[in-house]
Amino acid sequence: MKKLLLLIVLFFSVTLFSLTQPAFAGDAASGAKVFTANCAACHQGGKNVVNAAKTLQKADLEKNSMNSIEAIVTQVTKGKNAMPAFAGRISTDDIENVAAYVLAQSEGGWK
């Protein structure tokens, strides 16, 4: 009986953990809406009106070590230099979605 109970608990534990989404998954389609509402004023088309050397183009993201979901989430959440912090202004999910959108757009050349 104990072995059966242990197997059932183990089965449900494995199933539960396999169904959870990985951290920083992000939804690029939702991120596009959030980006348009909050980021496009400074970053329209992947550019940067404040600092032309720090665009959202793939090469610049790579050069500035910003070419990962985690790095973009940190930058958007905490801000840096002229970039304001968006923690408390938009949700964590929205920040992750924006990060996914930025990476997807940078891969596609911001078309």
Give a verbal description of the structure.
Helix content is 59%, strand content 0%. The chain is built from 6 helices and no strands. It has helices spanning 2-19, 28-38, 40-43, 58-63, 69-78, 92-107. The radius of gyration is 19 Å and the shape is elongated. It comes from Aphanothece hegewaldii CCALA 016. Monomer. One of its GO terms (biological process) is photosynthesis. One of its GO terms (molecular function) is heme binding.
From the structure above, extract its key features.
111 residues; mainly alpha; Cytochrome Bc1 Complex, Chain D, domain 2; 6 helices
Rg, rounded, reads: 19 Å
CATH superfamily annotation: Cytochrome c-like domain
Mean pLDDT equals 88
CATH topology: Cytochrome Bc1 Complex, Chain D, domain 2
Task: Give me the count of strands.
Answer: 0
N- to C-terminal separation? 61 Å
What profile does the largest beta sheet have? none
Structural class: mainly alpha
Count of the domains: 1
What is the CATH top level name? Answer: Mainly Alpha
From the coordinates shown, what is the CATH architecture?
Orthogonal Bundle
User: Beta-sheet strand percentage?
Assistant: under 5%
From the spread of the alpha carbons, the general shape counts as elongated
Name the helix and strand elements from N-terminus to C-terminus, one letter apiece: HHHHHH
Q: Roughly what percent helix?
A: 55-70%
Q: What is the assembly state of the chains in this entry?
A: single chain
Number of helices: 6
**Poorly predicted regions:** none
Binding site for heme c: 39, 42-43, 83
Keywords: Electron transport, Heme, Iron, Metal-binding, Photosynthesis, Signal, Thylakoid, Transport
Signal peptide: 1-25
Family: Belongs to the cytochrome c family. PetJ subfamily.
